[in-house]
Amino acid sequence: MTTKSPSVAITGAGIGGLTLAIALRRRGIRATVHERASELREVGAAVALSANGTRVLHAFGLRDRLAARSAVPTELIYRDWRGGRRIAAFTAGDDYAARFGAPYYGVHRADLQAALAEACGHDDLHLDHRLVDLSTENRGYELHFADGTAAHADLVVGADGVHSTVRRWVADDEPAQYSGTSGFRGLIPVDAMPSLPDPGAIQFWMGPGAHVLHYPIGDGDFVNFLAVVDDPPTWTGSSWVEDVSADQLRAPFADWHPGVREMVAATSLHKRWALFGQRPLTSWHRGGIVLLGDAAHAMLPHHGQGANQSIEDAATLAALLHRFAPDQALPRYERLRRARTRAVQRSSWVASALLHLPDGPDADDRDRRLAAIPDTLQWIHEHDAQAATEALG
Predict the structure, then answer these.
(1) Which one, of 295, 37, 285, 311, lies nearest residue 161 by Cα?
(2) Any idea where the FAD-binding domain is (predicted)?
(3) From the centroid of its chain, how far is CA 147?
(4) Is 215 one of the catalytic residues?
(5) CA 15 to centroid of chain Cα atoms
(6) Where does 12-166 have alpha helices with state H?
């Protein structure tokens, strides 16, 4: 451990930023979190926490908080888009937890963020702090915010998402890439979808040019869904989200199973989210400025790993800053995390195409290979970020 712990400023009070603050506090390292929004608020969004994420959060003392706010899916099911045929199904729940050593949770993002903020403590959480500039000062960094205030830190962590402000101080690279796909989201009461089979399961509905993922959250009375379509071919808007009509939302799924049609028709979020990814970075840090989560490795959501990889990043970075001086910790952090996150990024891009195959021989071959999906994706879910860090010399 270093003789003097560095002061750390984290930009972004999302899942990765708050998890890092908790992890650092547990190791006696002072961390302040600066969030551009004026309140912690997420509308219509949920998070799937897999074992590689929940084992970290459990180790940080959040087991009871998470269990009280989360649903545990009963199965993982892949279905045919039109008739709803079960193409492949696997038990989840206790079987999943026994296999991977931690549970799988569906939780509303606002509930998760509230639990993390509670564990982090509000004294060093600063809202309405939009970063506009960084400068070096006294061998550290001065953060300048839009409201005219400033803060000093030895280290700056950019946990500010796919359109990261901090990233431009680390890497001179292209902006996030539009994937050619966009998504519709919603939180729907189970009672509003009488035709939906197995609402307690996490399910993928696969069809030509689109797929739908949904899973239960909270007490299981609501289902969170993400419906992804191969449209529009380009994204020209300045924002990553745009308003759509109810007809635009329903149209791609007009011929799908009644349960899917009920789901997309019931959402009150008439918005389309562009799905962006990021080219892998050559370096995640420059001096004492370092990236975490989507700011470093934005990925498509088809493995549900955006939040979980951010949690892994946070656990790794905090452990290394506890053991090593910053100039040694940051290269080790990059070395530990870069190859794994690149592999998850690549796998999520491949999954997008496979989930959207038209009916025919290629889709039939994919369906046969789905029987091995628990083994195929085991490398993602079984990973223990803290153990991997401790193994580093």
Answers:
(1) 295
(2) 7-346
(3) 29
(4) yes
(5) 8
(6) 15-26, 51-59, 63-69, 93-100, 109-120
Burial 137-150 (b: 16+ CB within 10 A, else e): eeebbbbebeeeee
354 and 369 Cβ atoms separated by less than 8 Å: no
Beta pairing partners, 150: 144
Is residue 128 predicted with pLDDT exceeding 50?
yes
Please tell me the distance from the alpha carbon of residue 107 to that of residue 110, in angstroms, as a whole number: 8
Pick left, alpha or beta for residue 328 (phi over 0 → left; psi -120 to 50 → alpha; otherwise beta).
alpha
Q: For residue 156, how many other CB atoms are within 10 A of its CB?
A: 26
The residue length of the chain stands at: 393
Q: Which single residue is written with the structure tokens 């006294």? A: 138
CA–CA dist 67, 207 (Å, integer)? 33
Catalytic residue chosen out of the listed positions 78, 141, 215, 333 = 215
Task: Kindly report the average pLDDT of the chain as a whole number.
Answer: 94
Of 312, 275, 296, 332, residue with least CA distance to 167:
296
If you ran DSSP here, which 8-state letter would residue 158 be given? E
Specify the pLDDT at position 2.
44
Judge whether 91 and 75 are in contact, CB under 8 Å.
Answer: yes
Q: What is the pTM of this model?
A: 0.95
